[in-house]
Structures are given as C-alpha cells and as structure tokens.
Amino acid sequence: MSVSGYVPLVQEPLAQPELTTDILVVFGVVAFAIALFVTERLPIDVTAILLIVVLVVLEPWTGIDPETGISGFANEATITVLAMLILSGGISRTGVVQELGRRMASFAGESIRKQLFATVVATSPVSGFLNNTPVVALLVPVVTDVANRGNTSPSKLLIPLSYASQVGGMLTLIGTSTNILASDVSARLGTQYPELHRFSMFEFTQLGVLVVLAGGLYLIFVGHYLLPERVPPRADYLEEYAVEDYVADVAVVPGSPLAGATVGDATDALGDEIDVVQVIRAADRSIAPRRDTRLEEGDVLVVRTNRTAITALEDAPGVEPVGRPESAAADLSSDGGGIITELVVSLDSRLVGERLDPEAFREEFGAAVLGLRRHGSLVGERIVGRRLDVGDTLLVQAPPDTLDRLARRDDVIVARESARPEYRSDKAPIAIAIMIGVVAVAALEIYPILISALAGVVAMVVAGVLEPNELYDAVEWNIIFLLAGVIPLGIALEGTGAAAYIAFLVVQSAGFLPTIVVLWLFYITTGLITEVISNNASVVLLIPVAAAAATGIDANPFAFVLAVTFAASTAFLGPIGYQTNLFVYGPGGYRFGDYFRIGAPLQLLLSVVTVAGIAFFWGV
C-alpha cells in the first residue's frame, strides 16, 4: 500500500498492441491536427470542424461515423462549458469582478509586492468559479491602472495576472473548460479503468490550493525580478508607438475642393493610406470624425499615415501641411476630450482575420486608430490592410463616452479603465446568489453540473442579469467548436487502439523509472504539448495515453489523469499556449522570451508541487 492508501489492482504486463492500419491513419489525423494548431493556417474553430470532416470521411479506419463525428456538439462537456461561459458573462455585466479588483488594489500603493499580492488574491479565487478568460479581460485595465498609480511598470503585473488566473482555474471543476473536458474523458474511460470517474465539483480543490499558494508566492516574491520593465510607468502612448513619425497636420486652404465636402471625400481624395483622426476648427475638436462630417475652409485635419504618404501630402490638392510632426502629435495629446488608450483584439472578436481598415474601424467603433503592436513589436509603417489576430494591440483615440461603449463590447479589451463604466450593479447580489446556487447544487450532487449550470443561465435571464440577446455574445464560440472537434478525435484514439499503442511505447521507454518520475514526465510532456496546441486538445490526446500507461506499470490511472489535467491548464512558457497570455502581450509590451524567463521556473516548481501533491492525496 502507498502512503495515501491506493492499492493497485493486479495487472498483467501491458502487451504490445499490433500496429494496424487504423492506428496509422489516426496517427496521421493527429499529426495533421497538430500541424494546423501549430501553424495557425486556419482559425482554431475552422480546424476543429475540418477534423470532424476528416474523421468521418476516413470512417473505415477511424471508426467515426457521422453521428459520432458530431457527438461533440451534444457532449455534456461542451454544453457545460457553454453554460458556464454565459454565467461568467452574467457576473461580468454586474461589475463584481472589477469592483473586487479595485478594492483589493486600493491598499497596494507603490509597493510592488502589495500590488502583486492584490493581483493574485483578486484573480485566483475568482478564476476558480468563473471562466478565467473573461476574468483576465476584465482585470487588465484594473491592474494597469494599479501599476500606473503606484508608479510601477504594467509589465511587472500583467503576466502575473494571467498566470494567477491559470492556477486559480485549478481550484474547482468549473474553473476552466479543460477541467470540464478532462472530467468527461475520465468518465468515458471509466468503463475500462475502474479507478476513473467523472470529477466532482471539489474533487481536486486541496491540490488546487497548494498550486495557488506555490504559484502565488513565486509571483509575489520571485517572478517580478525576472520581468523587465517593457512599458514605463504612466507610459506616454504616443511616444511608445512613435506616433509623431506617422501623423501630420494639414489645413483646408481657401478655395479648396474639400471645403464643403466630407471627411469621407477627403479620405478618397488624399488616398487609401490617409486616415483622418481629428478635425480641428477654431477651438472645437472632432475626435474620430465620422465619414459624413462636413469640412470648412481653415479646418486642420490631423491625419495618420505612413512616411511616404506624409511626404506626398505636400503636393496634395486643396490642403497644405502646417507645423511639424511634433505639433501634430501635440494636437493629438492636447486636452480636447479624446482619450488615448490601447485595445486588445479578444479571442472571439469579429476582427480576427479581418484586414485593418482605419476608416471602417472609425465608423464602427467610434475610435481613430493611431498605431498597432503585434507580438510585442511595433508595426510602424503600413498598418492599413494588416490582418488582425488575437492579442494584436491597437492604439486608439476616442471620446470618453465611446470608450465606455467599447469597454462593454466583446470584440476588444480596453487596456484602460472607463471613466464612467455602466454595470448592472443592482443585479450583483442576484448574480452571485445564482452562481452560488449552481455550485451548491452540483457540489451536493443533487443534479449534475450540466443541469445546474443550464438552470443558472435561465435564472440569469429571468432575473434580468442578462438580456436574452446577450447570451450569444457571452459565449466564446471558437472554444465550443474546438471541443466539438477534438472530442471525436479522442474517441478515435481510444477506439482504434492508438492510445494504447502510444502507452506501450511510453511504458517500454520509461518503465524502468520510479512511478512518480513517470508521472512527472507526463506532467512535463503535457505542459510542453500545450504550448503548441490547444490545452483542450492536449487533454483529449494525452488522458487516454496516461491512463493506459499507468495501467501498464501498475500505477494509479486517476493520478496520471490529474497530472495531465493540471499540466494542460498551466501554460507558462509562451504567449500562445493559453489565451489569457495573449491578452496581456500588447499592454505589457512583452517579448516572447519574457514568458519563458518567468514561466520556466514556475512550470518546474508547479510540476514538483503538483506531482508531490497527487502522490500524497491519491497515491501513485
């Protein structure tokens, strides 16, 4: 008997499975899926749909018929995740998360450790009950404001915000979509392995607490030393984005054909690369003017373009340059009612994959685009026509009321707190009560989490926390399609024996190692795979392998399933392994290596803490 009381069942040595054509075909599909996930040649949801098509077309070898192929859409895990995303959206509409963040940060002052403590404490516990993606999206402007008020670089706090949300997600079953999917896979494997079952609400909370404590202490006392100050405290956005190199003031001269015309006419006349971001008329200033705004003689247009087009403006008919580039930048930053801030393209934004059209952006969002940052690097010259991706950061200028509206949209994350946020704060007690009820019903096993979560969604609408048309906006549909696509892939891995074959290879190569070391290797392997493919995909691919490998070495399959589950939800080595890492990429001004610098030691620390905790609580 192990120290925790687990008694392994007597198992025959794992026999070598036959390498069949079916297994080779499924391996090919897996390799194809990984290649698409890594290269991102297709959006993640499109890749998931393609996987369904490929698996069904190859039914003679994969065993996935059309009904099984689409079973992921009706799967309990998929519907539960959908319901939890809606519940998280309801909570966010009340402003509870933002208020918690502000209150926890109010005492932080200029102490970096107090600021980090506030960040971790405000993020981790909440992420155990709400999807951590919206939690981070809501707290990015709060934490940025805390940093600026405390004269701290936001770079010191934003990666810790993302990491704290990830470890917090391991506190309960509903903390992440990965936990819910892992629970479903574990339940499905229960017919083969008696030790496996569907997770209860607080199945691994004791281990989650250890992980949160270890991760939090590391972030507070060690991590910030490893993060450079990429963005200065109270950064001058115009200077950070080198905006003065790309803006100019031009005046509408007397007799100009643009006098009496519109901003749209001016844009058409001056060229596609020219975007009018302000119109100055005497003491009046129009921020992000609409296309139908009328121009008069003497109006000064502040335009954003590239260096070549700025030079060409000297010969443009009807206008003449006035002042120097520095004066144009000064016009942007002068007190004219416009707020300059950053917008991060969110995970399920309609902007993903679209080419940037500053004029169309100005019409739809009411904000003028001044600059673009991608993967931590400034895109200086030509931003018009650039395809936008998740995590891209746009520098914009907008009136205060427009910024309020932008803060409520799901397409972008505003990296600065709105001055007058409009939340349904009167509904906050009701929303919290509904969430507590959902958790309590599932924890007491009165009804499954699927039923309690769906009931919670209905209660949110009936109570007025959410409007019916807001249900769809609260769902990150790419996650739903991803789940629906990878679930049949997992079924194919199990059904064809591909998972058992991989498990045999693992046992053969690592069978001479102590069981706890093999468990640790599964944790590390899962963490590395999650960095290049989706965390949900890594769970589907590796849990069957882990369970089979554990059986092959007479170990506890449940321990191996937990190791894979925890490792898949803690991706610290780069910005693409987890969506919350992308959300802080631009506002923090990070480079790719910054994640590895702080994340690698944290990954190693949590691998030891998690594996030791599993051995203590459940045995190996």
TrEMBL record:
Supply one GO BP term: potassium ion transport
Q: Which GO terms describe its molecular function?
A: monoatomic cation transmembrane transporter activity
Cellular component annotations (GO), alphabetically ordered:
plasma membrane
Please list every transmembrane segment annotated in the UniProt record, as residue ranges.
20-39, 46-64, 76-96, 116-140, 204-227, 430-463, 475-493, 500-526, 532-551, 558-578, 598-618
PROSITE patterns membership: RCK_C (PS51202)
Q: Which UniProt keywords apply?
A: Membrane, Repeat, Transmembrane, Transmembrane helix, Transport
Signal peptide: which range, if any?
Answer: none
Q: What is this protein called?
A: Di-and tricarboxylate transporter
- Record the organism: Natrinema salifodinae
